[in-house]
Amino acid sequence: MKSPLRSVTLLLSLVLLGGLLSGCGKRASRTDYPNTFDDAKRLEEARPKEALEEYMSIRDANETKDREKAARALLIGAQFAESPRYSGGSEDLRQEGQRAAHDAYKQLQEKLGGTAAAREALSGDYLHVLEHRIDQEHSKQFNYKLVDSFVKLTGSHGAFSYWFALGLIAVVVKGVTFPLTLKMYRSQREMQKMQPVLKALQAKYKSDPAALQKATMEAYKEHGVNPFSSCLPMLVQLPFMIWVYNTIRLYEYHFAAGTFLWINPSLGKQFPGIIGADLASFDMPLLVLYAASNYITMRLTPSPDPAQAAQQKQMSIMMTGMM
């Protein structure tokens, strides 16, 4: 019987492939009409999503050759995305539009700063007004209140409270999932003990796959081993990881006030795009450290079976890449 790790690896591969495909198809270039403001305006009422895509297409087409036009497209697109005209009363579309508007305002400041549209957005403080509105909506949720209470517990200190709150959340989640992790490691040890038995059965029934599968299942039952018990706890932990991610997203605008070791405005300005200026910014060293620790942790439980060891190595690389 094939190791359950192969099934898990296949599942993760499909999830990763689906994410890549959806990401690739999200911003396909439009070819059925010219990139003009009038065309985008006409689409707003009947097809709001396509109208927003058209504004972004105007930005893409003019980002290098006409920065003013690209910036104007970003500004108009952002204002449309956060307006009721985009959502049409749909809560999902309203939240989607707010996220799109937030991204557009940030791009306006970071990539097209100095243009008339960027100065208009800056003078009107459009980004912070939108962030405040979103934050007020998020503040009603339990997850937001939980993080906020952790931050306020230590005085909302920028150099300590925010990363400390993240650490507390990690400890809580780790405490909840620890029994599952322990069960997974125990199951892996049980499977390792079964390897001599399984090899003997493979040698005995090498020309009869059906008999081999039946004998393998009987051997698992006789020794009280569940071949899937080593991977199921790992899958059960995924909802907790998603919960942590969503919780942090709810409180994300406040993390801009937090720093941690090398993550600070000074180094962030010296190495933009590599070192984070705050805890709400991307930080490459932190990502590398996390990926390395995740890979090492998964490799600390080697299998005596060469085939299973190869699958385990493949899975460790897959999980690290997804994270």
Task: Summarize the main sheet.
Answer: none
Low-confidence stretches: 1-8, 20-33
Percent of residues in β-strands: under 5%
- CA-to-CA gap between the ends? 29 Å
Helix/strand-derived category reads mainly alpha
Descriptive report:
The protein has 16 helices and no strands. The protein has helices at 4-26, 37-46, 48-62, 67-81, 84-87, 91-110, 116-123, 126-138, 142-153, 161-204, 209-222, 232-236, 238-250, 265-270, 284-299, 306-322. By secondary structure, the protein is mostly helical. Helix content is 73%, strand content 0%. The two termini are 29 Å apart. It is elongated, with a radius of gyration of 26 Å. The longest helix is centred in the middle third of the chain and has 44 residues, at 161-204.
Can you give me a brief rundown of this structure?
This protein has 323 residues and is an all-alpha fold. It has 16 helices and no strands.
List keywords for this structure.
323 residues, 16 helices, 73% helix, single chain, elongated, 0% strand, disordered N terminus, mainly alpha
Summarize the helices and strands and which ones pair or pack:
Layout lengths: L3 H23 L10 H10 L1 H15 L4 H15 L2 H4 L3 H20 L5 H8 L2 H13 L3 H12 L7 H44 L4 H14 L9 H5 L1 H13 L14 H6 L13 H16 L6 H17 L1
Helix pairs in contact: 1-16, 2-3, 3-4, 4-6, 4-7, 6-8, 9-10, 10-11, 10-13, 15-16
